[in-house]
Specification:
about 190 residues
């Protein structure tokens, strides 16, 4: 049974960047759940699928609902990503198992009307370790203006027997983007006409 110790939501609002006002301000939002690692305390488990099927869908639903407490509609989301951080007694595969399934990712992708691949990180760490959420544009993963990384931490998580599962969203790209995009580079370099 899914055991959620806490849910954590972080909102960053950028109003000024490089001495220039950001209009409208850009929100970066992370919704995180601290859950008991269902494989903790067991020897190597070959078949992770039963717990994936049990945990991933409700985790996706929980985190999406927390995101929509901050934003009003899917139209507000321009960039998105996901991450998992397993406690030191867990395997990296335990973190990956909960986020690298359509049963988790599609809850988020569908809710925000995204079509891009959900960029991700999964790593191991102790309490206070940073959860790094890389994001891309929700419908064009090559759009450099929306290559964003949002880092958050929870001071007391993950404990050795826990996993922190996170989704991240942004209401815009980076403030004042001006490095062009992949398609422009390819044309300039003669790689695409």
């Amino acid at each position: 049974m899914l055991e959620v110790r806490k849910v954590y939501t972080v909102v960053e609002e950028t109003k000024m960047e490089g001495g220039k006002e950001v209009t409208p301000p850009i929100l970066n939002i992370a919704a995180l759940a601290v859950v008991r690692n269902p494989w903790h305390g067991r020897e190597y488990v070959e078949d992770l699928k039963p717990k994936i099927l049990e945990y991933a869908p409700p985790l996706g639903e929980l985190l999406v609902s927390k995101l929509f407490e901050v934003i009003g509609s899917s139209d507000e989301v321009e960039a998105f990503g996901k991450a998992a951080l397993v406690g030191v007694d867990g395997e990296l595969e335990h973190a990956s198992a909960l986020i690298h399934t359509f049963r988790f990712g599609n809850k988020f992708r569908d809710a925000v009307e995204g079509t891009s691949i959900l960029s991700f990180t999964n790593k191991r760490g102790g309490p206070g370790a940073y959860v790094t959420i890389p994001m891309v544009h929700k419908t064009d993963e090559s759009k450099r203006s929306h290559f964003i990384t949002f880092e958050v931490n929870i001071p007391d998580a993950p404990r050795a027997d826990e996993i922190v599962v996170a989704i991240g969203a942004a209401t815009g790209g980076r403030p004042h983007p001006r490095i062009g995009d992949r398609h422009q580079d390819m044309i300039e370099m003669g790689l695409k006409s």
